Amino acid sequence: MKRPILIHPDPRLKKVCDPVADLSDELRALAEDMLETMYDAPGIGLAAPQVGDLNRLIVMDCAKDEGAEPRPMVLFNPEIVASSDESNVYEEGCLSIPEEFAEVTRPKVVDVRWIGLDGEEHGETFDGLWATCVQHEIDHLNGKLFIDYLGPMKRQMITRRMQKRKREMARG
Questions:
Q1: Which of 13, 44, 70, 115 has the lowest CB atom count within 10 Å?
Q2: pTM of the model
């Protein structure tokens, strides 16, 4: 089931999420809903607070090349355990900040561990777009948005445009 995506500014997007203690059927269903919502948007990542849920859960799929097999990933309690000194700059966007993009510098490679849908611990080294995406989504779990990496003027401009957009959407 597709879920509505919260639009910045929304106080829930600035909250630190709670660790998932037990993988319930509700959380598994939330993960499925989030994947459906992300693909429909379309996006490459989505964090639980973006759909109004404050659990430490992200979904992502950065397999975008022509003919690439989809690679949906569900990560409960994702944690970066190591990151490279080398950095990458990507023009990032966010489903909660539609049609706004900015260059963000992050570590090029990160080692992440998480709990999968199977309840087991998993780990992987992510590089390039995957590394940027997983860091962006984990930031959401810590109440941080990509615009928080920008200067105050640019951040305020984007926030004002989002406030205006939300007012226009409310008027329908």
A1: 70
A2: 0.96
- Is residue 125 within 8 Å of residue 111, measured between CB atoms? yes
Q: Which residues contact 139 (CB under 8 A, 6 or more apart)?
A: 145, 146, 148
- Tell the residue number behind the tokens 């948005």, with chain if given: 145
Helices (H), 41-151: 128-141
Catalytic residues: 137
Alpha helix segments (H runs only) across 10-120: 25-40
Output the pLDDT for position 66: 80
Q: Which domains does the chain have, with CATH numbers?
A: 11-171 (3.90.45.10)
Question: pLDDT at residue 159 above 90?
Answer: yes
DSSP-assigned beta bridge partners for residue 143: none
CA angle 159, 160, 164 (to 5 degrees): 115
Token output for 10 = 């929304």
Structure tokens at 170: 């409310």
pLDDT digits (tens, 9 = 90+) for 72-91: 999 999 999 999 999 999 99
Q: What distance in Å separates the CA atoms of residue 62 and residue 127, rounded to the nearest whole number?
A: 11
Rounded Cα–Cα distance for residues 100 and 107 (Å): 22
